[in-house]
Design brief:
175 residues; alpha/beta; Rossmann fold; seven-stranded mixed sheet; 5 helices; 28% helix; globular; Methyltransferase; methyltransferase
């Protein structure tokens, strides 16, 4: 089973399991992400969370409330182990991301989504529902392949950063 380390905050350097069946967010990308956003005391939603490495990073850096959503029981099992290894708690939701977004009433300060890289259909469906879970001044960060183009017409694109084949797109909802 793969491993990675937390890049900052109170658990910096602690090892986390990643599993061998999905693509975790690279350490350099996580480090850059959390150096660009302030998560201290905020609510954090991770969609397509996998082993929830990004959520653990958010907790390490002071997130107040963290919610992790994924449809894979195997991924969420690793997610639980990672949270236990840090003695932290987060709300873990076993659900299809689209169903979760359609049914939740909660809103978050920061939303991170790392959907399947080439599934433009699921990414666009998720983006269409994203404003429903965002507060007025919320920020969403999409990790995606640089090779795909998406419709961001409902959003203001605040920033774009490239990391090899990966692109982080920072979005605010157009109100």
């Amino acid at each position: 089973m793969g491993e990675t380390r937390i890049t900052g905050g109170k658990y910096r350097g602690r090892k986390l399991k990643t599993g061998n069946f999905f693509r975790p967010t690279m350490s350099s990308v996580r480090s850059a992400l959390f150096n660009m956003i302030d998560i201290e005391g905020k609510s954090f939603l991770e969609l397509f969370c996998g082993s929830c490495v990004v959520s653990c990073e958010a907790l390490s850096r002071g997130a107040e409330r963290v919610v992790c959503v994924d449809r894979s029981k195997r991924a969420l099992s690793i997610c639980r182990k990672n949270l236990e290894s840090l003695n932290e708690t987060a709300t873990i939701i076993h659900s299809n991301v689209v169903d979760f977004l359609q049914n939740t009433g909660e809103k978050f300060d920061v939303v991170f989504l790392d959907p399947p890289y080439n599934d433009v259909e699921i990414i666009n469906k998720t983006l269409s529902l994203l404003p429903k879970v965002m507060k007025e001044d919320s920020l969403a960060v999409l990790e995606k392949s640089k090779r795909i183009e998406l419709d961001f017409s409902n959003f203001e694109v605040v920033k774009r950063k490239d990391y090899g084949e990966t692109e982080l797109v920072f979005l605010k909802v157009k109100r």
